[in-house]
Structure to design on (238 residues):
């Protein structure tokens, strides 16, 4: 289990995260909802070791991750698929995947390349072409595949639906669910609450750097303030 408690993060004088707690279980998807600037991306970046917390706990299967550099966090089995995809446009699809597996053994790289191609057959078709020629949706699939290459136990996804057409959002969300069903723990930040709630198991709501609600998706759906804030009145009546 991945457990974050009482997390505080500052960028100089700016407090980005003031009290965030969440858990992610193997085989389950924890969805993080919250307004722009609430501290969602900072939380993921801090777990990933890209930013150091000012205080708080980040514990993976009983061991603290606080203070570890990003490459060590990857080595412990946590991978981040960043917002905005950030694929290497001039490299091929296959080369982008290989980069994600640079810490892995050859055997694991081959296994996870196959997994990425199995989840997203279009990547296999385009494997020798430049990633920059992929559509936005295909680039998101590639970023997702690249995140799997380090053979993670937990994968964090920062707004995977951003800028994608609804049909592609469904494909990406379906793959997030499939990965969880294969046993990975998923921590997903998503502005598209509807799409996220369709596949998630647990929800954490973040407001101005603090987690203010956490519970199962079922509970969240019956919690009127959560529904009203993220889904609108129509969803409450449904
Ligand atoms: N590199 C940085 N330097 C200074 N302040 C930052 C930096 N990154 C984020 N912040 C600030 O920290 C706060 C939280 O930002 P963060 O990006 O984590 O929020 P978010 O919930 O992910 O929002 P969004 O959905 O817009 O990405 C905001 O006030 C933001 O302006």
């Amino acid at each position: 289990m991945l457990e974050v408690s009482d997390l505080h993060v500052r960028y100089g004088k700016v407090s980005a995260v003031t009290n965030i707690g969440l858990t992610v279980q193997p085989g389950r998807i924890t969805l993080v909802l919250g307004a722009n600037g609430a501290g969602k991306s900072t939380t993921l970046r801090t777990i990933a070791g890209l930013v150091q917390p000012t205080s708080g706990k980040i514990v993976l299967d009983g061991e603290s991750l606080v203070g570890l550099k990003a490459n060590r966090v990857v080595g412990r089995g946590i991978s981040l698929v960043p917002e905005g995809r950030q694929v290497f446009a001039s490299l091929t699809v296959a080369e982008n995947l290989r980069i994600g597996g640079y810490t892995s053994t050859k055997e694991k790289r081959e296994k996870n390349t196959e997994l990425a191609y199995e989840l997203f057959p279009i990547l296999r078709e385009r494997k020798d072409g430049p990633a920059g020629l992929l559509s936005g949706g295909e680039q998101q699939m590639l970023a997702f595949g690249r995140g799997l290459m380090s053979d993670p136990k937990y994968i964090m996804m920062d707004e995977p639906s951003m800028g994608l057409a609804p049909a592609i959002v469904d494909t990406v969300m379906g793959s997030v669910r499939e990965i969880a069903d294969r046993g990975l723990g998923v921590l997903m930040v998503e502005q598209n609450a509807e799409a996220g709630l369709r596949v998630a198991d647990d929800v954490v709501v973040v407001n101005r750097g603090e987690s203010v609600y956490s519970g199962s998706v079922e509970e969240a759906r019956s919690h009127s303030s959560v529904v009203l804030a993220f889904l609108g009145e129509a969803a409450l009546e449904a």
